[in-house]
Amino acid sequence: MSDTSFIQRSVLTMLRWLEKFRYVKFGIVGASGTVVNLVVLHLGHEYLFTAIEPAGSKPYASLALAITVATINNFTWNRLWTWSDRVHTLEADASTGQPGLGLLGVEFGQYITASAFGSALQYVLTLLLSGSMDYRLANVLAIVAASVSNFLANDRWTFKRR
Question: pTM value?
């Protein structure tokens, strides 16, 4: 066994180990997003949209609003913390030294696109499960189911290594 292959294997093992921490960070951000999602879902269904979503009905509009607000929350914190080591490689605007708004917009668009499958899965599962359990519990179960696909899509595309 050569020293080079041992070093390569060691580096790969270490990178896999570090990636586990990224998923933990993603999970913490996701937990904050779940709280945001549940608060907006509850407020929307119980107060904001009562005219179109009476008690006991499925939370169509409030669920869409909750997913939107939570996605913005999660994008912000994932960008600032989970993948901060990859975000710093964005090109800076020559006049301000800050990442350009165009680049931020592209990154946000990629995040939304990468999260679309998970968001759709969350929406459908919540509505399906809310027929047999409380809509808030159904939403939490749907969020857990969608989180793995969201992590993989954003890790491999939105915040990929440059």
Answer: 0.76
Q: Report in angstroms the alpha-carbon separations of 115 from 20, 60, 61, 110.
A: 20, 19, 19, 8
Per domain, the residue ranges of the chain are 19-158
**In whole angstroms, how large is the CA radius of gyration of the chain?**
19
Q: Tell which residue, 107, 75, 76, 71, has the closest CA to residue 90.
A: 107
Q: Spell out the residues 6+ positions from residue 73 whose beta carbon is closer than 8 angstroms to its own.
A: 32, 33, 36
pLDDT in tens, 32-53: 999 999 999 999 999 999 888 8
